Amino acid sequence: AVAALPRPPYCVGFAAESEHLLMHAQAKLQRKRIPLIIGNLGPATFGRDDNSLLVVDAQSHHPLPADGSQADKLSLARLLMQELADRLARLPA
């Protein structure tokens, strides 16, 4: 509903999937009509201290960490916040 507002804020969605992460994240991006989805393979991370993310927008996708490895969740949170800050800085005023 927030993304459908006349002047929506920058909306970020999250997708925890059990398989086909990129395909499901791209579908959710279109369905929700938001600029960014952060996805992960949920069952693979339950009870673990490390994880990896997939950043998906309409033009591309890339992993966090950038090399596709696993990282502790605090490090991932910092990488994600930097990703969001960089994207927000590039938005027109």
What does this structure look like?
- By secondary structure, this protein is an alpha+beta fold.
- It has three helices and six strands.
- A four-stranded mixed β-sheet has the order 1-2-4-5. Strands 3-6 form a two-stranded antiparallel sheet.
- Helix 1 (21-32) links the parallel strand 1 (12-17) and strand 2 (36-41).
- The longest helix is centred in the C-terminal third of the chain and has 17 residues, at 73-89.
- The radius of gyration is 14 Å and the shape is globular.
- The two termini are 23 Å apart.
- The model has no long low-confidence stretch (mean pLDDT 93).
Helices and strands, with pairings:
Layout: E1 12-17, H1 21-32, E2 36-41, H2 42-45, E3 50-51, E4 53-56, E5 61-64, E6 71-72, H3 73-89
Parallel strand pairs: 1-2
Antiparallel strand pairs: 2-4, 3-6, 4-5
Distance between the termini: 23 Å
Largest β sheet strand count, sense and barrel closure: 4 strands, mixed
Oligomer: single chain
Rough outline: globular
Strand order of the largest sheet: 1-2-4-5
Total number of β-strand segments?
6
Instruction: State the share of residues found in helices, binned by percent.
Output: 25-40%
Q: Count up the helices.
A: 3
Query: Taking Cα atoms only, what radius of gyration do you get, to the nearest Å?
Result: 14 Å
Question: Which residues sit in consecutive blocks of at least 5 with pLDDT less than 50?
Answer: none
Average pLDDT number: 93
Secondary-structure element order, N to C: EHEHEEEEH
How much of the sequence lies in strands comes to 25-35%
Structural class: alpha+beta
